[in-house]
Amino acid sequence: MEPIFTLPYSEYCVAQQLxxxxxxxxxxxxxxxxxxxxxxxxxxxTHRRERLLRAASIQIKGSRTYSDVAKSxxxxxxxxxxxxxxxxxxxxxxxxxxIAIYPSDEARSSRARSSWWAPVILLFTHAEMKRLLKSVKTxxxxxxxxxGFGFNKESAIFQTRGNRHGKHPDFSEHLLKEKIxxxxxFLMGAxxx
Length: 193
What we know:
Blueprint: H1 9-21, E1 28-31, E2 43-49, E3 52-63, E4 65-67, E5 80-82, E6 84-85, E7 95-103, H2 105-109, E8 117-125, H3 126-135, E9 146-153, E10 156-161, H4 176-187
Parallel strand pairs: 3-7
Antiparallel strand pairs: 1-2, 2-3, 4-5, 5-9, 6-9, 7-8, 9-10
C-alpha cells in the first residue's frame, strides 16, 4: 500500500492557478512541504535559470464566501463577501495568498469549465500583508479579529471589513493575475517592496 499525501483544497487551488500563470517551460516549479508543521510555508514556487535556483515561500489563508444575492435589495454593494480571521504573520512567508471560492455565474454558463465554482485569489508580499494586518481595526480604532473583502466579479475586489473609516478601499491590484509579474520579478532577484 502506498502512502497518500493530501493538500487542503485552498492550497491545491492556489497551486493550480499559479501553475497556469508560471509555466514549467519557463523554468518555474511548485512544491508543497511534506510536513504540515512547516511554519509560514504552504507552497514554494521556484524559478531555475541555468544553475541558479530562486524560491518564494507562500502562506495560504482561505475564506468562506458568502453570497448576498438575497439581500441585494437592501443596498448592499457586493454580490459576494469574504471573511478572514486576523492572524499572526509568520516571518517565514515571502508572500501570503488569500483565497475564496465562489459560485461564479460565468462558470455556471460556460460549458468549457468543469465546475460552477471559481477562485478569487489575492497575493500580498510579506511587507504588504504586515501593513494590512496592522491596519485591521474596528470603527472605534481597536484591533479587529476579522477582515474581509467584497466583489461582484473576479476582476475587482474591495475591503469591506477591517477598515476603521468604514470605506471600501480597492484591493484589485492584489488579485493574482495583477500581482503575478511582481512574483516573477521576485523570483528573478528583484527586491521586495
